[in-house]
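Annex B. Sample input.
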Amino acid sequence: MGFAGSMRGAQVILGPVVVVEQGLLASILPKVLECQEYGKYVRIRVMSIVFSAIMFLGVMIYCLILCVVPSEWVASLLGGVWDIGRQFLIPMSLLQAFSGISLGATLAFRGLRNSSKTVVVRSILAPVPFIFSVPALVLWGETAAIWALVFSGALGGVFLWAVFFYVRADLESAASRVGTEVLD
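Annex B, continued. Sample output.
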């Protein structure tokens, strides 16, 4: 229970980052839909890549700030949750950062009018954290399980973006066969 509590504590510490991610997603989504309406697909791709980069860097900067500021100050601000969650702050921050990268890929799919692909890809990726973390927990312990989760998060982000670029290339080849300009 202490292991799960420490992970949850780290998630609570990262709560402000999650709120910012969701707020930025909500603010950029109308712009993506507007670009979609006017067929500006390159702009959607660039916006999604920039969104992913901002999410990754934002989480890493937040984590760095928490690691650099004296622990007593952070503990006075966050209370007991800091003592519980700080041991897993770095791996959980990386996991959240990779989640932001995946969120950018999801935004890109939305811009291609192909949101259903993300459901398929996420369904395929759903067992991956268990496939990596459960054996790591059994064989090497809690810390290995956390890092296995981080690896699965990175793998998920890379896989989502790879599928996006594959789908985009498929749309471009379909457009060239028809002789129309689907993507700019």
